[in-house]
Structures are given as C-alpha cells and as structure tokens.
Amino acid sequence: MIYTESSMDALRQGGDELADATVATLFERGEVGKFNTLMRYVSTAGSPLPDGLPEVALEYLHATGAPPAWVDWGEMEKARLFFIDNNVHISTALSFASMPACYVVPHVAKLLSATHSLEYPSKRMAETGQFTVHLMRPDAFEAGSRFIPAVQKVRLLHASIRHHLRREGRWDVGTLGTPICQEDIIGGQMFFSLLVLDSLHRLGIHMSVDGAEAYFYAWRVVGAMLGVDQDHVPEDLDSARQFLDLYMTRHMGPSEEGARLTRQLIDLYEEVVPGTLLDPVVPALIRHLIGDTCADWLDVPRSAWDTLVKAVPRLLGVLETIEDRSPLGAWALDRLGQLTTVLELSSLTRGRVMHYAIPEQLKKDFGVSAAVSRTRRWAPPAPTVGPR
User: Which residue of 58, 105, 111, 258 has the fewest C-beta atoms within 10 A of its own C-beta?
Assistant: First the structure.
C-alpha cells in the first residue's frame, strides 16, 4: 500500500467503532465504576466472567475474546522464539527508543499527559513490559493466558480517552482529528515493532530475516486485536517503513509535555540502575537510539557517555557472535536475558499485576493547542522520506 498525506489525513478521522460504542454506553448508564470493579477479577482468558457485568460489556468481551481468524500460528511461534532469543534487547529498545519516540510526537505527548496514571512512568513501562511478555508466552491465546484480557482492557482505555476528550471539548478535532485515531494507533504499532527492530540493528544485534518478519507479524496481530483497520495497516516491513517515515515527518517535533515525560522516564531508569555511577548511561543510550535531533527536542542531557555508549554495538556484536557459534553460549545468554527481563519487570511492577481500567475523568489541566536460522541477516528497509 502507498501512503500519502491525504490517506494519512483520512486515518486521522477514524477511531474504534466497537470500543467507542461500548464505552459511550457505560458512561451513559453510569456503569463505569461497576465495570472497573468487576473487571479487576478478569485477568485470564477463558475464566468465568463475574456476575453483574453490564450487558454491553459482556457483548464487547465476547466479540473481542479471540484473535483474528487469519492468524498464522507458525509465524507466531517464530516470533515467540525470536523474543526468547532477544528479550533483553527488545526490552532495552522498548524502554530507550519506543517510549521516547512516543514523546517526540507532540500531540501524542500531550495526550499521554492526560491521565493521572501517566504521571508515574513506572506504571506505563510496567504495563508495556507486562503486555509484551504476556504476548510472547506460548499460551498467549489459550485459556488461562493474561494477554487477551489485557488487550481488551487497553482497547477500552483508548476508547475512554477519546470519549472524555470529545465530550469535554478538550481536543481540537478539526485540527488534530480523532484522539487516538487510526493513524496514531498504527503509529504506535510501528513504534513497538519496526522501531524496535531498527533499534536492535543499531545496537548490533544479529537478527535473521525470518525472525524480524515474524516479530513484526506478531504486532500486526496485536494491532488487529486493538481495533486497527486492517485495510490500511502496513502488511510488511517495507510498507511499515514508508508509513513510519511519513508519520514521523508529519508530526514529530519538540513539546513541553514530551520533554517532561522524557525527564520522568530518565529519572525512573536512573532509579532502577544500581548506584549513580552509571546514571549518565541512560540518557546516552536514549540519544544513541533516537538520534541527536529527537533527543534535543526532548531535552535529553548530553554527557561524555554519549561517545562511550557507541561502543555498545561492538560489545553486543561479540556476544552475538558467541551465541551464533556456540549452542551452550546461546543457552546461557538466553537464560541471562530472561532473568534480566524478569528482574526489570519486577522492579517496575513491585511484584504486582498491573490492572487496566477505564478512567472516569482526565487530568483537569490537560489541553491541546493547534529460534530461527541466522544465515540471512536482517537489515532495516531503506528510508523512504528524506530529512526535513
């Protein structure tokens, strides 16, 4: 599919008809609080739904309780193995590239500042990390998994934010389009898929073509379950590159909210890193992965580590070579990666399960102005849009 300014403008008008109608009815009938209370007991797929759920909620949960019929389970298994092989690197890319990339889109940064929970970046990161780990489990789409309920709740969360902003007149629809529109949801899908792969490549991680394509495919499935219009979503990495390049050139830039959210994120990571000696590594790695222009827009501080962190790809390249050549080395690094991911997620969640809920109101000060073969090494698709 070829993306143009006009086709992207059209995507700014679309929301999520099913989730939007569900949330509107819950608010209309005053059933949001009751729904949130009962849904705290729904954390695994296939478990009995609690008595007393509103009828409209039951209809929504039944309609969204299964993955799309077109899922290729062979590709999903490849994606799971790719995640196992690269989980610590993927967590790094999500933390130091994908999250800051969200903040470099001003209207997204303003929107993320709209809910109370996002004042606490550890909650946002914990939810993202937990969501990804649930997705890559072998039982992600089976009874007992935590992934499908998480997707259902996130989709309603998006719809509730659209509901508040429209109802309260705190979003310039004429200028900005629908809040959390199709263009932004697809853009988020690209941040968590293609941008992660870009970041792994920039870090010097060895990725097979099959593995990279499968990881992207898994996020296509996630997008479909989050209400993305499948007639307009990129179907492969080349079209994903075109979409992401155009999306970023249309929207990226500096904003007060983006800089503030980035500062919160850096403070969080520095708190997780033991001691203070390595604190400068955090902003240096963000700057390395998103580039100086975006980092400057987000007020990411500079330090001597900006040069030193460029040696990270060479170090990781050595470890990747060991993994490529030694089954024992591959096993040991995979186990270390799993342990690191678990410890990182545990530090963010404080050992708790993160719950998604429909916010009954937004912040009052929110406002918007106008294991696969490694013989075929993956490389990112070429840029499709030149510098601005």
Answer: 58
Q: Tell me which amino acid residue 106 is.
A: P
Residue 200: both structure tokens together: 């792994």
* Residue 343 pLDDT exceeds 70: no
**Where on the phi/psi map is residue 368: left (φ > 0), alpha (ψ -120 to 50), or beta?**
beta
What is the spatial distance between Cα 349 and Cα 36, in angstroms, rounded to a whole number? 20
| DSSP per-residue codes, 104-138 | TSHHHHHHHTTSGGGGSHHHHHHHHHHHHHHHTST
Quickly state the pLDDT bin for 345 (edges 50, 70, 90): very low
Among the ranges 169-173, 285-289, 325-329, which has the highest mean pLDDT value? 285-289
Cβ–Cβ under 8 Å, residues 161 and 362: yes
Placement of tokens 């170090």 in the chain: 315
> Interhelix angle for 147-167 vs 209-225, to 10°?
50
Average pLDDT over residues 108-119: 70
The span from the CA of 89 to the CA of 377, in Å, is 16
Rounded to whole angstroms, the Cα distance separating 223 from 230 reads 9
Residue 278 pLDDT class (50, 70, 90 cuts): low
Q: Please state, in angstroms and rounded to a whole number, the distance separating the CA atoms of residues 125 and 113.
A: 14
Domain boundaries, the chain: 5-349
What secondary structure, in 3-state letters, does 14-40 show? CCCHHHHHHHHHHHHCCCHHHHHHHHC
Is pLDDT at 33 greater than 70 in this prediction? yes
Model pLDDT, residue 315: 53
Nearest-10 Cα torsion for 30, 36, 38, 44: 140
Query: Residue 201: is its pLDDT beyond 60?
Result: yes
